[in-house]
Every structure is written in C-alpha cells, then in structure tokens.
Automatic annotation (TrEMBL):
Protein name: UDP-glycosyltransferase TURAN
Family annotation (InterPro entries): ALG1-like, Glyco_trans_4-like_N
Listed SUPFAM superfamilies: UDP-Glycosyltransferase/glycogen phosphorylase
GO CC, alphabetical: endoplasmic reticulum; endoplasmic reticulum membrane
Compartments where found: Endoplasmic reticulum membrane
Gene: LOC107778138
Entry keyword set: Endoplasmic reticulum, Glycosyltransferase, Membrane, Transferase, Transmembrane, Transmembrane helix
UniProt key word Glycosyltransferase: yes
Length: 482
C-alpha cells in the first residue's frame, strides 16, 4: 500500500485495531481488521476484550492476531453510592495501564493504530501516548460520541460528563486522521470540534446475504428446540395440540423436508428479528407494547372468542385467518435482558411469541437471511450515528422497521427498504399492514424486500473501505514516516 508521492509503509507493514470492548460484539472493527489484512496486505493486531467469539473469517485469518485483555469485572450493585465516583476514577486508571501494557509491550510496533470511539476514556489517551512512544500514526473511527452515552446515566449537567467531553474533544483533535459513520457526524465534527473526518458508511461484508432454503432449514433444525420452549406455560408455538411434529427431525416450525425436497410451511409464523444490546438507549418496551397491540387488534378484528376451548382456539390461530402468528427472535447481550424476559413471561399473548438467544457468529447472518422483517430500536445518544444491525439486515435482504431519529434517513429510505416509527402504536400499525395475507398476499412486505435486494448489490464493505478508509490510512502512515 502506498501513500502520497509514492511513499510506502515503513517497517514490515503492520496495523493495530484497538477496541475497549468485546471484539465479538464490535463488527465494524472486525471488518476493519479483515480489510487491513486482505486489501492493504498488513499484519493486524487486534487489542480488545474477549467474551464473544469474532467471526471465523477473523479468527482464522493468518495475518490477524487477537490479543485479549482481562475484562473489567461488573460493577457490584451493593457498592455504596458514596463510593461510586471513586469507581469512575479507578476503573479508567486500571484500563489505561492495561492498554498501555498491550499497546507498548505485548504487540509489535504498528505503523498505525485504529481505535474505536467510544469509549473515549481512557482509550484515546492511552492510544495517543502509545502512538507517541512507538512513533506510529493514530486514527480514530468515530462510531458515536462517548460523552453523550455517559450522559444517559449521569445526566448532561454532570461534571464527569463535562470532563469526558473535554478529553474526547482534545484527544480527537490530536489524532492523525478520523473516520466517522454518517455525514451528520462529519458535519458536527467539522463545525463544533474542529476535526476533519472521512465518512465510511457501514456496509455488510460478504457473509451477510440472503439465505438459501436449504440453509434456512438447517438453521431452523439447529434452533428448533429453543424456538419451541416458551417463557410462560405455553404460547402459540409451544401448545401441544399444534406441535405434534416435535419429534420429527425433518420438520421445523417453518420448514418441512421430504427426501431431498425442502418446502416452507404455508401456516408458518412470520419471523421478526431484532438485535439489541439491552441498554437504556434502546427502549425494548416499545416492541413489547407493539406486539401486544398486534395480538389484541387481530383478536378483535377476527372476533375471536376467548371462551372457546383452548385447543380449538390455538388451532384456529395456527390456521392464520389473514393475519399470521408472529415470532420475535431477539438476539444480543446486555444489562436489561433479564428484566425484559420476566416481562415477556407475564404477557398473555395468543398470536405472538418471543424468544431471546445468542447465536454463533456464523448463524447470525443466516437468521437475518431467513427472517421476514427486522426491527431496530436504536435511537442514538447523539442522534448522529447509524445502527450497524440495520446494515447487516439489508445485507441479508431483510427489510426493516426502525425508530425514527435525526439522521436515520441516511440509511433507511421509507417505502423503499423499510419503514420508520415513533411509537409502539405506529409500529403495531406497520405489523398489521405488512403481514396481512402472510405469506402469500403481503404485497407491501414483498415490495420492501425487493427494494432491499435491488440496492444491496450496488456497494459493499470492501469497495467502501477501498474508496474511503484505505486512502486515509495510506496518507497518515506516509506523513508520519516522512
């Protein structure tokens, strides 16, 4: 890879990707590592926490080397409030020293550090110091603003938030280069931070694509047991009267295999997928309320009688009657997961079922490629970033319903590849519209899917990275080595 004036990377050609978080839950930084290895032909050291496995393409690439730091333990709930400010100081201090050890001692000296932001503290400080010690270039990839995330828990007027904002801005300005995820963020960085950033839109890598019928069937076979296990005593997927094919390994809730022939069931539930970090910036109660509204509205519309014998009612629901059963699969890990699982267990739903799960990195794209609709609850603490989960969904040919906020239209085009909503009632209306006549006659849903498929082939991560990230990385390495 050459820089301006034909300059070439010094040393042996090496980059360090720095994530103060779980590398398995940092897809964009994984894609950076792959592109640095594949397209820039660099040796790549990833310095991050473990916890979740990265994609096999990252794990098994000969030029990508993962260095897992020791994870900071969860904050004890029993810690007195008076001691919590001390924890806010002590935790980043320990993280700072650990980062320095890895960046300055554990890995070979890189030509460039590429660091994920947020978190900003102590990451930007540690990487800046390490880049000075090792005479390396230093690039920040702005995913969001760290101070806005901290303000969700401490409030905008907190002194810690103000200090965090100053550190983030100061060290952001001394970086050799910056990437960011939206034009809105690029404008904010230029106008109010004095930082020139290159927009690198998130794009799915090649392994995010629509799933074949055979891939769908194999996936559903692997997760069938989990799908049939409800949170409460029973629901529309677990009732014994309608799951008589439980013990047949060739029959799932969605597919049937006879010999070598695989077919989708006519009375299958509609599959809706949402990925969440189970944090306060994604209000999962919106989806719960919308699901409950769908359940009640369809029941009232079809004049379903709750006094009918239970097995007869389940059988009629299974039959569809224009509106299908909805299965929501919620993927992800996070602090509020258990709270919402308890809420789900208490819901009295007849036509809707929820399942939460954590999938292997190779199965997650298959799930998206097998679903009928994606739902995104991301609202953005800054209003300037875009949800990677929607990018992944589009890569798999999956239309979305997403929460509306300031810059989401840089990604979701209404009535072309998805819909936007601002309330649970609006989301419930969208479910009613999209799934009427499912699976054969839902024209609006089919139109959105066609829109996604028409646009997904126009650009991908490799071309986006080649056109925007690679020139910047080449330039800062050349200038730093001159």
């Amino acid at each position: 890879m050459s820089g301006e004036n034909g300059g070439r990377i010094r040393r042996s050609g090496r980059a360090a990707v720095v994530v103060l978080g779980d590398i398995g839950r940092s897809p964009r930084m994984q894609y950076h590592a792959l592109s640095l290895a594949r397209q820039a032909h660099l040796e790549v050291d990833i310095v991050a926490y473990g916890g979740s496995d990265p994609h096999s393409a990252v794990k098994h690439h000969n030029s990508v080397h993962i260095h897992e730091m020791t994870q900071w333990p969860s904050n004890p709930r029993s810690l007195p409030k008076i001691l919590r400010p001390l924890l806010l100081i002590f935790k980043p201090l320990v993280q700072f020293l650990m980062l320095l050890w890895y960046l300055c001692v554990k890995i070979p000296a890189p030509d460039v550090f590429i660091v994920q932001n947020p978190p900003s503290v102590p990451t930007l400080v540690a990487v800046k110091l390490a880049s000075w010690i090792r005479r390396s270039a230093f690039i920040i990839d702005w995913h969001n603003f760290g101070y806005t995330l901290l303000a969700l828990s401490l409030g905008r007027n907190s002194r810690f938030v103000a200090l965090y904002h100053w550190i983030e801005k100061h060290f952001g300005k001394v970086a050799n280069g910056s990437l960011c995820v939206t034009k809105a963020m690029q404008h904010e960085l230029a106008q109010n931070w004095g930082i020139s950033a290159t927009v690198l839109y998130d794009q799915p890598p090649e392994f995010f694509r629509p799933a074949s019928l055979e891939e769908k069937h194999k996936l559903f076979c692997r997760i069938d047991k989990s799908l049939r296990t409800p949170y409460s005593l029973q629901d529309c997927l677990s009732n014994e009267e309608i799951t008589t094919d439980n013990d047949n390994p060739n029959v799932t809730l969605f597919t049937t295999q006879t010999g070598s022939d695989i077919s989708l069931k006519w009375n299958r539930p509609a599959l809706i997928v949402s990925s969440t970090s189970w944090t306060p910036d994604e209000d999962f109660s919106i989806l719960l309320e919308a699901a409950l509204m769908y359940d009640r509205r369809v029941s009232a519309l079809l004049n379903e009688d709750d006094l009918k014998r239970e097995e007869v009612l389940w059988q009629e629901i299974k039959g569809g009657k224009q509106y299908p059963r909805l299965l929501f699969i919620i993927t992800g890990k996070g602090p509020e997961k258990e709270k919402y699982e308890q809420k789900i267990a208490k819901l009295n739903l007849k036509r809707v079922a929820f399942r939460t799960m954590w999938l292997a990195p190779e199965d997650y794209p298959l799930l998206l490629g097998s679903a009928d609709l994606g739902v995104c609850l991301h609202t953005s603490s800054s209003g300037l970033d875009l949800p990677m989960k929607v990018v992944d969904m589009f890569g798999c040919g999956l239309p979305v319903c997403a929460v509306s906020y300031s810059c989401i239209n840089e990604l979701v085009e209404v009535d072309k590849n998805g819909l936007l909503f601002s309330s649970s009632s609006e989301l419930a209306d969208q479910f009613m519209m999209l799934f009427k006549g499912f699976p054969g006659e839902c024209d609006e849903l089919k139109s959105l899917r066609q829109g996604v498929l028409a646009s997904r082939s126009s650009v991908n991560w490799a071309t986006e990275w080649e056109e925007n990230a690679k020139p910047l990385i080449s330039k800062v390495i050349f200038e730093n080595s001159s």
